Structures are given as structure tokens and as C-alpha cells.
């Protein structure tokens, strides 16, 4: 059965179905128009008066994400909007690894609301000063797109949370339509700056999973990569998604699809095999999916951190002051650090229960260890997040009352915005770091902890440590987070097993210094060599490789709505047309016509498998021409085919794939 969602969804941008206000006018086009998909001989064309010679412009890499890597605020005195780069954003950091001969352009939404009357002015300001092109999505549409479909359905589902009862994140078709409409707005913005002959587009994360279809429909040869920063669930979970086919087909309109871990990629490939019948194979070290004549490559590489950002934070005077303050405050105690976003998948309460079990099982640690739990503000708060936060506070209070005293609290929760330099100070002083998420995409906290434990000249001076002294760290990480396979020296745990987590914490704290140093050295070597620049550079190189055959083949766009795809064929193929077939048919004196049965003579999904009277009549007309030799070719048995076509005396039948011939 065809899903309803594939019908006319490409027209949702008008907002008529959802009654959303129109978006503001777009910026003037500055690059050549996109290539139009040919429906005839496969040739491409551009409007003569609209393009600019691509050789006059530098190649661009267009980074498309839900949020732009900029922070904005209105100046209280002048009333003007002031913007600055968000240096913590991975999308800003990745530019360090991209080719220096390419301009990086960002497309995404702002984190602040801008009045419609100011949007054109702000767009020009951001483009001129930051190479950023904002997508101003109407507030009601954005609410249904982001807070609705993304956060209420995709995010929980990709973290293995199914909507088991009404009102609990059930699929909402209006939210899905808003998701499609928002992706279409992103596509329109990308097309404003895209030169398809030279530029590359890199789309990020689950917010924009159908964007590749819109871009591919507008420009058949767009050089397009997609990277998913969240987990990709197993096929048993993913197949519960009512629009599973549309999203899979949209992702396959990219040239390169990236994942943090092999497991996420394996789940994606399994979904493609089970739901679309696509098989993958390895080609010279690359994993490829053959899809309509194209090869969609799969990339597996976890992202990294920005080494310079962390090192500058450690060298900041405020970090040294904070290190001194924390060191004095917890003198004589061993710090265990947890840094988590406040959401339902981070396992904060489970972490607290493990601390309780640790203190109960090893009484000598009471008064000796302290868990510092930093809770980052949630990206989007809802009832479940509030309940998880309340549970965490109740659990911590119970443990502190049981094992604490007037001068000692086993668990300290820091529930506020913590500046980066302050986090760096906690990282540098923690004996152990624990990441206990029950499901997470990558999670860079262990990487940041490892780098900060390496220290800096300022931190060493503050702690009175020799610069050449050996460094040590201890990591306890959930086996359900993306960075776990990369950290071979970490202690991996099942976060649901409280006793095992408590034992892991004890092992991490009591581990000999020599072993801690060896594990730290191994982790630091990996983290420092596989930073965010390495990740971006590797993805760009693979994207270039994936697109190298774009201009060798002929391309045709086929399918409607989100079922659209590109059919890629070698130059020797030409599309059959009635104008070519009819004259050739009339000229020939001897014709052989072979017809498949299921899917050609009768519909593939037809319940009634016998041919209709109209089909019998057409076949008899074809067979009545002495110049025609007509065969039905099928895998069906000879008995049923003979009965169905008994009225067609001159019709040939190849049953069971040609084993029996009449």
C-alpha cells in the first residue's frame, strides 16, 4: 500500500494545506541556475541569461543544519541585531578541516526570533559578515517541525523509544507535513547560493532527512552528502515509522551518507535491504548501495573535538582561577565528573543509583569521593524531561541524606549554564569521568575530559605540577554511546546494570596510576589525531570521490513526491519514447515481443492474478499480426498460465522462467 504522505508533498511549501504564513522573499540569486532533469534524451541545459560562468567563482561547500553556528542578540542601546560565531558549534569548528580553496557557506535557522520586517536586512548582514544564509521558518510551522515531528517523534524513535500509548509521541501527520514543508524551505535557500557545477552540499542530522530529495529534484547532479549525528535504530524499531520508506528514499538521494559508528550504518543498510530490497557491497574499501543506477556510498567515522578550543580554554586566566578554587574546595577528595544534557536518555538517575551502590558496597569511600554532575539546559523541555529532572533531584537528595553530613555531599548537582572555561577546570581535576547514557549519538564528553586531563602550562602551574609529569585519566562509558568503540581503554558498562556500573567506578578510582597513564596515553593519541578537522577533511574527500562519476552518465528524474529518484544510465542508453517505437514497429517485418506477467500484464500488488478480458483482447490483437511473435515470460507454473491464456492460441508462454515453453 502506498503511504498517503507521498502524495503531493512537494507542494506543501505553499502552506495551503497547513495554512501557514508565507516566508519572506529570497535573496537575489548570485550563482548559476540549477541543472534541469531531462525527460528526453538525458541532456542538461541552463538558461542562457541567468547563469554566470562558474570559473569566475570559488568553489563553495554549503553546510546545511537546523541551526546556524551564530549567536544573536539585540543591542539595548541602538536596537540593532548583533551576531557572533558560536565557537562551540561543531558546524563552525568543522571548517578548519575543509579545503582552503573553497568558501564555506552556512544555511540554517537562527536561535533568536527576528521580526518579519527585519528579516531581509538581517539576511544580508549575515551573508556579508558571516557567510550565513538564514532560513526564516514561520513560528507555527517551526513549532510543528522542530518541537513536534523532530523532538516528539524522530528523536525518541531513533533512541529506541516507541509511542506505546495515546498521547505519548504518537505519529501526527500534520507534524510530518510541517517537517516536509520546513525541509522544502531549506532547499529553496540552498538553491539561492548553489552553483551545481562546482559546489558541494553537506546536510546534517535528522532535522533535514528529506532535504536530499528536494535538492536532487531541483538539480540532478548536485554533489550532496548527508551526516546523521544521532543513532540510527535497528530495522525492528525503524520499521514502525509510518513514513519509513519516504525517509529512506530521501537519504538515498544523497551521494554519501555518514554515520558515527558501524552499528548505526549497519542498521541503515539493514533497513534498505528489508524495506527497499537493496543490497550493499564493498568497493575498494568503500561501502556502496546500488540505487537506480547510482552508487550511494556509506561513510563511518565519528566526529571529533576542536583541540584549539579546549587548549585555549585551559590557558584562559579564568580557568586557572577556577582550577585553584575547585582544588581547594574538594581538597583530599577524589572527584567523579558527569556532564550531561538534561534529557530522558542520559541516564542521570541511573548514575546516581550506581554511586549509592558504590558507597554502600565500599563504605571506606564515604567521605572520599564526590560526584560533580553538571546538567546542561535541555534543548527542548517537555513533561518527560521535567519528570527526569525531578527524579534525578529526588534520588540525589536521598543519597546525600543517607551518606552525607554537614561537611560532605556525595552528589553535587550544578544545574545552570556553566561557562566553557569552568567545565574545562572540572575536566582537568576529575579523577574519573562517567558517561552513563542509555542511548546517545556520539557524546564528546569523554574526548573533552581526555584532552583537559592532559593539562596545560597554566593548569600545571596552578596545581604545582611539573610539565613533564605523566598524565592519567579514567573513563567509564556506556556501551550504548557512539564514542564507546573509539575508546579502547575505557571501562564499558551497561547503564541499566547498577551493580556493574558501581564496580566499574570502583575499578576506575582504585586503578594503579601506571595503568591509568597507559589508558590515558592511548585515548589522548586517538582524540588528538582524530579531531573535528580530521573528520571534516575525511568526509569532504569521500564526498568528492562519491561524486566523481556525476557527468559520465545520463540522468532521468522518475517518481512523484518523496518517491522521486534519479535514474542514472551509461551514455550508451537512451530512453525509449513512443516517437521512436511506433515508426520502428511499422517498418519491421519480424517482431519478437516478450512481456513479463506480474507487474506488466497484471499489477504487482493485484489480488486477482488472472488477466482481465481487456488484457486477453489486447494480446489476441498482437498475436493476430503474422509479423509478431508474442511471449509471456513468468516464474509462475505452467498449469495456471495455460488456464489463464487458453483463449490466446497464438500466444507463446515461458513458464517457470523458461523451464516450460508452449
Automatic annotation (TrEMBL):
Molecular function per GO: glycosyltransferase activity; trehalose-phosphatase activity
GO (cellular component) term, any one: cytosol
Record-stated family: In the N-terminal section; belongs to the glycosyltransferase 20 family.
A Gene Ontology BP annotation from the UniProt entry: trehalose biosynthetic process
Start and end residues of each stretch annotated as Disordered: 35-55
Name listed for the protein in its UniProt record: Alpha,alpha-trehalose-phosphate synthase [UDP-forming] 9
Keywords: Glycosyltransferase, Transferase
The keyword Transferase is assigned to this record: yes
Gene3D superfamilies registered for this protein in UniProt: Glycogen Phosphorylase B, HAD superfamily/HAD-like
InterPro entries: Glyco_trans_20, HAD-like_sf, HAD_sf, Trehalose_PPase
Organism: Phaseolus angularis
Amino acid at each position: 500500500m502506498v503511504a498517503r504522505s507521498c502524495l503531493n508533498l512537494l507542494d506543501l511549501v505553499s502552506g495551503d494545506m497547513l495554512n501557514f504564513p508565507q516566508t519572506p522573499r529570497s535573496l537575489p540569486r548570485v550563482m548559476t541556475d540549477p541543472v534541469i532533469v531531462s525527460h528526453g534524451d538525458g541532456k542538461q541545459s541552463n538558461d542562457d541569461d541567468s547563469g554566470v560562468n562558474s570559473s569566475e567563482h570559488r568553489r563553495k561547500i554549503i553546510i546545511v543544519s537546523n541551526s546556524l553556528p551564530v549567536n544573536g542578540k539585540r543591542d539595548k542601546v541602538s536596537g540593532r541585531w548583533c551576531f557572533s560565531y558560536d565557537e562551540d558549534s561543531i558546524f563552525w569548528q568543522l571548517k578548519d578541516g575543509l579545503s582552503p580553496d573553497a568558501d564555506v557557506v552556512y544555511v540554517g535557522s537562527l536561535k533568536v526570533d527576528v521580526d518579519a520586517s527585519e528579516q531581509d536586512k538581517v539576511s544580508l548582514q549575515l551573508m556579508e559578515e558571516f557567510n550565513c544564509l538564514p532560513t526564516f521558518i514561520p513560528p507555527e510551522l517551526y513549532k510543528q517541525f522542530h518541537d513536534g515531528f523532530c523532538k516528539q517523534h524522530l528523536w525518541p524513535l531513533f533512541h529506541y523509544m516507541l509511542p506505546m500509548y495515546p498521547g505519548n509521541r504518537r505519529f501526527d501527520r500534520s507534524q510530518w507535513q510541517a517537517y516536509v514543508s520546513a525541509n522544502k524551505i531549506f532547499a529553496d535557500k540552498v538553491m539561492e547560493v548553489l552553483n551545481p557545477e562546482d559546489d558541494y552540499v553537506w546536510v546534517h542530522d535528522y532535522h533535514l532527512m528529506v532535504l536530499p530529495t528536494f535538492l536532487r529534484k531541483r538539480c540532478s547532479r548536485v554533489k550532496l552528502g548527508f551526516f546523521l549525528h544521532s543513532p540510527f535504530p535497528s530495522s525492528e524499531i525503524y520499521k514502525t515509522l509510518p513514513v519509513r520508506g519516504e525517509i529512506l528514499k530521501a537519504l538515498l538521494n544523497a551521494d554519501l551518507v555518514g554515520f558515527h559508528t558501524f552499528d548505526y550504518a549497519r542498521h541503515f543498510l539493514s533497513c534498505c535491504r528489508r524495506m527497499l530490497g537493496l543490497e550493499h557491497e564493498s568497493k575498494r574499501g568503500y561501502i556502496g548501495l546500488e540505487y537506480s543506477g547510482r552508487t550511494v556510498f556509506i561513510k563511518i567515522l565519528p566526529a571529533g573535538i576542536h583541540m584549539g578550543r579546549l587548549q585555549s580554554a585551559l590557558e584562559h586566566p579564568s580557568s586557572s582561577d577556577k582550577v585553584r578554587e575547585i582544588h581547594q574546595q574538594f581538597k583530599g577528595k577524589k572527584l567523579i565528573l558527569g556532564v550531561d544534557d538534561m534529557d530522558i536518555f542520559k541516564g542521570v538517575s541511573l548514575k546516581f543509583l550506581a554511586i549509592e551502590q558504590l558507597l554502600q558496597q565500599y563504605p571506606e569511600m564515604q567521605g572520599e569521593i564526590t560526584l560533580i554532575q553538571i546538567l546542561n539546559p535541555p534543548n527542548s523541555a517537555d513533561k518527560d524531561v521535567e519528570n527526569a529532572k525531578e527524579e534525578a533531584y529526588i534520588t540525589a537528595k536521598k543519597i546525600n541524606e543517607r551518606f552525607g553530613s554537614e561537611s560532605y555531599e556525595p552528589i553535587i548537582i550544578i544545574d545552570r549554564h556553566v561557562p566553557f572555561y569552568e567545565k574545562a577546570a572540572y575536566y582537568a581535576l576529575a579523577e574519573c569521568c562517567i558517561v552513563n547514557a542509555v542511548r546517545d549519538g556520539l557524546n564528546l564528553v569523554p574526548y573533552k575530559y581526555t584532552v583537559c586531563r592532559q593539562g596545560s602550562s597554566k593548569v600545571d602551574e596552578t596545581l604545582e605540577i611539573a610539565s613533564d609529569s605523566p598524565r592519567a585519566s579514567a573513563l567509564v562509558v556506556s556501551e550504548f554511546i557512539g564514542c564507546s568503540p573509539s575508546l579502547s581503554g575505557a571501562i564499558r558498562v551497561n547503564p541499566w546494570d547498577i551493580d556493574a556500573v558501581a564496580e566499574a567506578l570502583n575499578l576506575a578510582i582504585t586503578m594503579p596510576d601506571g595503568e591509568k597513564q597507559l589508558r590515558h596515553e592511548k585515548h589522548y593519541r586517538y582524540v588528538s589525531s582524530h579531531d573535528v578537522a580530521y573528520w571534516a577533511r575525511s568526509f569532504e574527500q569521500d564526498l568528492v570521490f562519491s561524486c566523481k562519476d556525476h557527468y559520465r552518465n545520463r540522468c532521468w528524474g522518475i517518481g512523484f513526491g518523496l518517491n522521486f529518484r534519479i535514474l542514472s544510465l551509461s551514455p550508451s542508453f537512451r530512453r525509449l519514447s513512443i516517437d521512436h517505437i511506433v515508426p520502428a514497429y511499422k517498418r519491421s517485418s519480424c517482431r519478437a515481443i516478450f512481456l513479463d506477467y506480474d507487474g506488466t500484464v497484471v499489477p504487482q500488488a493485484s489480488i486477482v492474478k488472472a488477466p482481465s478480458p481487456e488484457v486477453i483482447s489486447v494480446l489476441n490483437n498482437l498475436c493476430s499480426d503474422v509479423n509478431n511473435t508474442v511471449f509471456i515470460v513468468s516464474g509462475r507454473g505452467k498449469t495456471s498460465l495455460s488456464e489463464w491464456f487458453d483463449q490466446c492460441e497464438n500466444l507463446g508462454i515461458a513458464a517457470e522462467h523458461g523451464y516450460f515453453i508452449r
